[in-house]
Amino acid sequence: MEKETNNIFSDNEEKKRFELQVGEITAFVDYIINKKGNIYLTHTEVPKEAEGQGYAKELLENVFQEIENRELELVPICPFVKAYLHRKPEWKKLLADFAQF
Q1: Alpha-carbon torsion 30, 83, 56, 97, what sign?
Q2: How many separate domains does the chain show?
Q3: Judging by DSSP bridges, how do beta strands 38-45 and 25-33 pair with one another?
Q4: How far, in Å, CA of 81 to CA of 49, rounded?
Q5: Segments forming the whole domain that contains residue 12
Q6: Residue ranges of the alpha helices (H) in 1-101?
Q7: Phi/psi of residue 87, each to 5°?
Q8: 86 to each of 10, 51, 74, 80, how far by Cα in Å?
Q9: Residues 66, 17, 74, 22, CA torsion sign
Q10: How far apart are CA 46 and CA 63, in angstroms?
């Protein structure tokens, strides 16, 4: 059974990052989207005091769902995102054909 959460997921287009707001804490994934519809996930960050509580997983699950909904092609640059894709191969369907993985 999934735990219920009041965390807020959003796309902060001004900062070019997806965010997960957890109370006063913000976890985020920086991105670049090119004109061809490729989204490069370049950096993931969870504040030290929130590490190990599943927020990065929750953030990435939301990010991947958003990428799928927008029909973008994923290019993972961030090592954490690459590692997560190895653990969750069902999201590899989002990868751009040329993505180095």
Answers
A1: positive
A2: 1
A3: antiparallel
A4: 20
A5: 8-94
A6: 55-70, 79-87
A7: -80, -25
A8: 25, 20, 14, 10
A9: negative
A10: 14
Residue type, 36: K
pLDDT 10s digit of each residue in the chain, 101 long? 345 568 999 999 999 999 999 999 999 999 999 999 999 999 999 999 999 999 999 999 999 999 999 999 999 999 999 999 999 999 999 999 998 76
Determine, yes or no, domain membership for 99: no
CATH number of the domain to which 25 belongs? 3.40.630.30
| Distance from C-alpha of 90 to C-alpha of 80, rounded to nearest angstrom | 16
In a domain, residue 71? The reply is yes
- The answer as to whether 73 is a domain residue is yes
